[in-house]
Amino acid sequence: MGGEGLRVHLQELAKYPSGRYIIAHCTKGDLIFLLVGLYGPNYDDPQLYQCLSSKLAVWGGFPQIWAGDFNCVLDLTVDRSSGLPRKPSAAAQTRTTMAADTGLVDIWRHKFPMEGGYTHYSAVNDLHTCIDYWLVDPEPTYIVPDPGHIQTMNQCSTH
Q: Which among 143, 147, 150 is positioned nearest to 64, based on CA atoms?
């Protein structure tokens, strides 16, 4: 099992002008899917997700995998170490709406709904958060890494 890679063929590639995301239209055997690599800004920017949504709509209804540093907390209850009440950012709300519209799930939360796993620590706020995610169509989840591997990759985050 170790050392196996995911070999895919790139059909087409699109990039956000400022480099915040790339979309790869890929195939693996008979499976066609979109792979989205995302680096969200560290300020509240729902326009990024609106632009991404528009681009994805043009490419049709293929299964999707989003991976990257979203730079926003998606679930204030589970993805933050502090129980202090806080309103979700506009970017997080827009992303949550997009996920609901497309059916994407956080594969880690899907498999382990209440298990912690933080990818960022703010010393100023003494706060742990999860801001790095793998969002996928619930099926076919076999094209994404095992959730245990995702936790290992998140622990290697640049934060």
A: 143
